[in-house]
UniProtKB/TrEMBL annotation:
Belongs to the mandelate racemase/muconate lactonizing enzyme family. CDD domains: L-Ala-DL-Glu_epimerase (cd03319). Keywords: Isomerase, Magnesium, Metal-binding. Its cofactor is Mg(2+). This is Dipeptide epimerase.
Length: 365
């Protein structure tokens, strides 16, 4: 099964409500869909999302990297030589992790189709239902509490609360949510690099003292500040998760060696796809560190790939794959179906994507 062409198409999907973090605000989810076609007519789908404030990748850079660097390195290759193809993708350009992830996902979709099995079974077949949290954008304490109540009504048991915009106000935000939802809902926080190390320790300790019962805090400080991250991890009781500090398998090695975080957040757009995600998860597991699978504001193709990965691996103990529930009108069918707070994986071959609607047409299986 040889790869004969690589096509890309941009889709823009309106969000149900603006998504706001300490780093950015966005109302539309853009995704560059990749379609790999093999000489047998089989198709592999992938997807990349531009999150310039985190990965540095934009729609234009993703499209350019795929067209001019990554696609020429995979066309003509036999999908059964997956390891060799991955080396080519990796060495086609440095960085550009979102573009690499899109092609990597499409390659794994095609590879699993070649052997006619669902992708999660290829990764280990641990489970076919993944429970996700849902994100509460950073807003006023009152608006965040109202959002929290709605999400709990819709079946969510874990709320990922965005903070990182003023430590003192963040305490009021989290208090309002805890008071609104009661003690049985799990709360995790994501500061998206918004605090200094000292502010993080002060804020997290205050939340501990007030009994907010926080499951974990994600990326409290700047991505490059590994010492600061380690300082926080060693000085609070609440578990700390690395997100923007973890892109590559090498970043994972440093975080594990330094014991800078308690838990790791793997995202395909940061690490360059499923190939590196497996390396990161294996390294973490061998050091006794659990991983969460996360996402950007992504298409259902990217979410399906991440969910299939989580479905294969027992060391992925948490999922933040809520983008699929933030989009107003879903243009993609198959891959994964949302049932309240659970993602149910497709048993079709590969990702199980059935159809992708674009404004002017469709990619059909
Ligand atoms: C969407 C997901 N719940 C999430 O919060 N992801 C990122 C931010 C992604 C973005 O800005 O698109 C995270 O920091 O965990
Ligand atoms: Mg995060």
């Amino acid at each position: 099964m040889r790869i004969v062409s690589v096509e890309t198409e941009l889709i823009s999907m309106k969000l149900k409500k603006p998504f706001k973090t300490a780093l950015r605000q966005v109302s539309v989810a853009d995704a560059l869909i990749v379609k790999l076609t093999a000489d047998t007519g089989d198709i592999g789908y992938g997807s990349a999302s531009p999150t310039a404030v985190i990965t540095g990748d934009t729609n234009e850079s993703i499209e350019g990297a795929i067209k001019n660097y990554i696609a020429p390195s995979v066309v003509g290759m036999d999908i059964e030589e997956l390891e060799a193809i991955m080396r080519k993708v990796e060495s086609s350009a440095v960085h550009n992790t979102s573009a690499k992830a899109a092609v990597d996902i499409a390659l794994y979709d095609l590879f699993a189709k070649r052997f006619n099995i669902p992708l999660y079974r290829l990764f280990g077949g641990a489970r076919k239902e993944i429970e996700s949290d849902i994100t509460i954008s950073v807003n006023s304490p009152e608006e965040m509490a109202a959002d929290a109540i709605n999400y709990v009504k819709n079946g969510y048991k874990t709320l990922k609360t965005k903070v990182g915009v003023d430590g003192k106000l963040d305490i009021r935000r989290v208090k309002a949510i805890r008071d609104a939802v009661g003690p049985d809902v799990q709360l995790r926080l994501d500061a998206n690099q918004g605090w200094t190390p000292k502010e993080a320790i002060k804020t997290i300790r205050a939340m501990e003292d007030q009994g907010f019962d926080i499951e974990l805090v994600e990326q409290p400080v700047k991505a490059i500040d590994i010492e600061g991250l380690k300082y926080i991890t060693s000085n609070v009781e609440t578990p700390i998760m690395a997100d923007e500090a973890l892109f590559s398998p090498h970043d994972c090695f440093i975080l594990l060696k330094e014991r800078a975080a308690d838990i790791l957040n793997i995202k395909l757009m940061k690490c360059g796809g499923l190939h590196n995600a497996q390396k990161i998860n294996a390294m973490a597991e061998s050091c006794g560190v659990e991983c969460m699978i996360g996402c950007m504001i992504e298409s259902k193709v990217g979410i399906a790939a991440a969910a299939h990965f989580a479905g294969g691996k027992l060391n992925i103990t948490r999922a933040d794959l809520d983008a699929v529930d933030l989009i107003e009108k879903e243009p993609i069918s198959g891959g994964v179906e949302l049932s309240k707070n659970k993602l149910i994986l497709s048993d079709g071959a590969g990702l199980g994507i059935k159809n992708i609607d674009f404004d002017g047409g469709a990619f059909d299986e």
